[in-house]
Amino acid sequence: MNLTRRRGSKAFFITLGVCLTALAITLNITWIHNNSRRLAIDLLGVLLFSILIAGVVLNTVFLVREIRRNERQDSFLNAVTHELKTPIASIRLYLDTLGRRQVDEEQRQRFYAIMREDTDRLLGTVETVLKAGELGQRQRADQRNRIELHPLLANCISTVINRHHLAPDAISLAPVPGDVRLYVLGNLEDLRTAILNLLDNAVKYSPNGVNIECRVGIERYTWVVLSITDSGLGIASRDLNRIFKRFYRASSNDLVKIKGTGLGLFLVRTIARQHGGSIRALSEGPGKGSTMLLKLPLYIPSETSPPS
């Protein structure tokens, strides 16, 4: 109901803006036609008309943006509420079961394992929200160190495989051509957060089987490029740039059931920019998989280099 109301408001403001613009154009043309011999007044009229049109257009754009932003925030709140309530309800259910009846040791340990997984999920959601607030409001001013990207990626892959209980070969990592050691200058925990979010996303959007290929390479001798390619649900062309916005989630019907807060890729983009790099998504369309390209400045040691 709320979404329908917002869409109606958006359509209203767009229609209002178009009608006002058309009315202003009609009135201005009529006025110029009736006063065609008064050049100075005509020029003044054109100037005032331009200002009026600019104001109407800017007002319409602002209102539409605000409506879209509110829609994304509502979706974010709904998603976060679900991500918080679901594990809490699960933990409480198992605690009530353990408190009300006797269970054998094997079943008890299984309950404990499920509750630990729910706790990790709950903690992950909270940390994502807190991290988004921290990175979105200020630039990182802490000490940055030299980091070799390939071992960091390998460590993150191991973490994701264990987290999602995947087969060891579900995520592959190609060696660096020529066994070159590629370094970047950055914050270790932030870069780990970015890579984990990219890997988690690739797993999450591969519901029919996880098959992910990871690579680290060099571009133009000045950039380190980390690529993560999956064979999952893919991304529509209209969403390739939008998915990195705060709270934005792809609108394809195939992706509605995928859980998330809409903050993961926003975090990745923020971290990449704070390290002087960028993030880009490639996909041939829904159902054809996707590739995420994280580009960071190559670190070249010098005499004044910071310690590793």
What would your notes on this structure say?
The protein folds into two domains: 1-138; 145-297, Heat Shock Protein 90 (2-Layer Sandwich), CATH 3.30.565. The chain is of the alpha+beta class. A hairpin with a 3-residue loop joins strand 4 and strand 5. The protein has six helices and seven strands; from the N terminus they run H-H-H-E-H-E-E-H-E-E-H-E-E. Mean pLDDT is 78; it is low at 252-256. Helix 1 (2-34) packs antiparallel against helix 2 and helix 5 (188-204) runs antiparallel to helix 6 (264-274). Strands 2-4-5-7-6 form a five-stranded mixed beta sheet, with helices on one face. A two-stranded antiparallel ribbon has the order 1-3.
Secondary structure layout plus pairing:
Elements: H1 2-34, H2 39-100, H3 105-137, E1 145-148, H4 149-163, E2 171-173, E3 183-186, H5 188-204, E4 212-219, E5 223-230, H6 264-274, E6 278-282, E7 290-297
Parallel strand pairs: 2-4
Antiparallel strand pairs: 1-3, 4-5, 5-7, 6-7
Helix pairs in contact: 1-2, 2-3, 3-6, 4-5, 5-6
